[in-house]
# Entry
Amino acid sequence: MPHNILKPLLITSLCGLFALAFSGCGESEPEYVEVREAQPAAEDPHAGHDHPPGEHPEEPEGDTGALAFTYEAPAGWNEQSPSSMKLLSLAIGSPPELVSELSVSAFPGDVGGQLANINRWRRQVGLGPISEEAAADFIQDVTVSDIEGWQVDFTGPEGSGENGGAARVVTTAVFQDGQTWFFKLVGNDAALEDELENYDAFLKSVSF
Amino acid sequence: MHIPPPLVSLARTLGSLRLTVYLLVAAVFLVFFGTLDQVRIGIQAAQAIYFESLIAFWHYPEDWPLGQLLNWFPVPVPGGYLIGPLLAVNLVLSHIRHFKFKWRLLGISVIHFGVLMLLVGQLMTNLLQKEDYMWLDEGETANAVRSFHKDEVYLTRHADDGTVGVYSFPFSELEEGNSLPKNPFPFEVRVAKVFGNAEIQSLGSAPGASRHGVDRGIGAQFNLGVKERSSFRSDDQRDVRTAVLEISKNGQRIGTWLVSNVFEERFPEQSFSLEGRRYDVGLRYRKTFLPFSLTLLEFNHDRYPGTNIPENFSSRVRVEHTETGETQEVMIFMNNPLRYEGFTFYQASFAKQDTASMFQVVRNPGWLMPYIACTLVSVGLLYQFGWIAYRSIRRTSS
# Structure
């Protein structure tokens, strides 16, 4: 065999050997272990949220981080234990009256895009999805802590909320430090209507 | 010993300085194109396509000037698994060819050995390292870690004594039409459908989605439809990995289940009974059980006084070995991980207003190699420069 053909042939074989060697390094084997009954803490603290199926990525789990802003809670808004997804949770009103909630969460990036989030909030109040053009009519520009953001306000049909009322969601989103921050006010339409001024005041008090 | 001339010639080529230069230039191109594409496809995909392959093809982005014109042309880029091993071979062969023991050159040999070790260590890390995470609330205990990127199909059997038999199989290895291999339970699981990334919605509101024969569990209960969607290829969004599993015993179909990694955090386990035993079936972020448990006693988030700027994050944990019963309290904080039983726990994140802590859990059998390699290179450099300085001083004084 001519010398000048053999050399590239050997080099190719060598490369092939590398490929073979590394292709065998996968994790293709099934495993079987016996353990004690799983303890709850072994699960994610993100477990147990009752999001509707199908739209997982809109609020991906992520480093929710510390509360990187200061705020003033309006009178009657009481801080409650946050969940893993909520950096801050304020209860508005007290039982047996209906309780509304303001929650703040932050997630890296644009969390699936504006339209996906808008449609998710619409679904939460019993409304159908809308197109990007239609969504533009609902988006208002707002400023939080001198950062430009956007706000939407959706009210569902009668019966979509508690006690047969209409559910309503008002959400303001701003992008800060590589994260999208959501300030979400949720409750029955009748109760929220009276809290909109407080909501605006709360947003004005937020300072990153 | 007679070595055939082609082999000698090959060894010379592979051990030549010219090849070293070519490979280093190729490495520059690899890093350049890999980084360019990382912006578009995310770290995971970029790493797999560029750095964990023999060859990759870069396409000029369509949204750049003249993108429509240039996008079709694939630019071949040598991959990390080609450059790295060739560099190692190059180093070894050039050493074999040129090595002559001399005290004045000993430092160079040590440096080269250190560099070789660094290359081998990197390859080992790449092939063997596993990265997982563990979330803990204050006061809670966990004995398992979860994968950042990998998913698995699992089957569990609950015994009366509180033990659970857990069978798992990597999602990436699922093949439609095949049965789960080495399944220890008395039934067969056939993979009817696999979705790398799926859209799961109520059948009525999801055009194009199909039920895929699911008649048991969450899929049937909520009348869910599934359709394939392209991968998010994002570092922030995890693909909704989904499968349809058909379970049967002795040819008799028991039922068909829809399993997905988005179910676990939203729904209870999907279970069924067979011969008086309860079994669960599902798909989840890969879960690795540990031979010990970790309890988060306290998480601290210190800030500089008067500001929100973090000064330190620390977690006080109790480690308890399952078999030996050995218990110890450890403080994990930035740059001070816990190393235990081959696992390294790094303080990675926190949540729930500083009451939950997340650890990045790394297993890397080759973790010591870079330290040894860097020490060798340092010693080699010190020796070599020391030798030159010694000779120079001697020459001057004489």
About this structure: Chain B has a mean pLDDT of 90. Chain B touches chain A through 76 residues (CB under 8 Å). The longest helix of chain B spans residues 17-51. Chain B has seven helices and 17 strands.
